[in-house]
Amino acid sequence: MEHRSRNQRNKNYRPMKNHREQPSDGPRKKKKFGQHFLRKQSVVDHMIERVSITPETTVMEIGCGDGFLTQSILHQTPCKNLLVYEIDPEWLHFVKEHIRDPRLHLNLKNILELDCETELKDHQPLVLLANLPYQVTFPILFLIQNHKHLFQEGVVMVQEEVAYKITASSGRGFSSTSLFLQHHFKWQLMERIEPGAFTPPPKINSRLLYFKPRFDQPTIPNEAAFWKFLKLCFNTPRQTLKNNLRTTHYPYQRLSEETLGLRAQQLSFDEFLTIWQLLMP
Q1: Domains of the chain: residue spans and CATH
Q2: Which residues does residue 193 pair with via DSSP β-bridges, in sequence order?
Q3: 113-143 pLDDT, tens per residue?
Q4: How far apart are CA 74 and CA 245, in angstroms?
Q5: Omega before 125 cis (within 30°)?
Q6: Helix axis angle, 269-279 relative to 223-233, nearest 10°?
Q7: Could you report the per-residue pLDDT of 195-235, keeping only the tens digit for each?
Q8: H-type helices in 67-175, by residue range?
């Protein structure tokens, strides 16, 4: 039996007949915006296949570039609306001229300045599909975390190294940021994308990441202080917990010597939570 995605099962699904390159003419790609435009159709197909999009779903895209992902979302899914946020007025105008669809809503805006509660609340739950600008990946993810109740799920493309940091559970790359993002989202590593899949090609590999907001997290007493405490624990990753905490106001002497001799990268979220309950003010 032929495999079909959840989106293809919908009677309103309209597949693209052939892979089509976007017109080669267009505005200059700007390094300051991290503009590396995807050119591999199978990557876009896998992004769309991974999420559930119905005629009631609003899809959100951050940074449309020349519309490579944009047109695939509109052709391959029955989405109700596609909200696009683009910081570059020249490329936004380019997409406006080349892609016509009543479901497409183009917005000239820096995503980090978006008032999510005002502009997105009437469109929830949202599905996010985006090739994130690498230089602002974490600020965008923190923005989504602050408004995660608006999102159903999503797939984002990030630097491969960043993807590993987000999903790490120990060792190199594992940090307080890993724990924070894993506390708020379920993550799944998807395929690696080589530099040659982009124009111009970046110098590093990229990776697709699937995410789904979590609302089943354990309660953290004095949560804001807890995350600040974790940053202190990871302050110097190669140092032991004792060395990272000895200059702080926390009564680290309450911990066993065995625990104090560990590095933060050797501890799990549950272990940190236990430590926090012993040391919190």
Answers
A1: 32-213 (3.40.50.150), 223-279 (1.10.8)
A2: 206
A3: 999 999 999 999 899 999 998 889 999 999 9
A4: 52
A5: yes
A6: 110
A7: 999 988 889 999 999 999 999 989 999 999 999 999 999 99
A8: 68-76, 89-98, 116-120, 137-146, 160-167
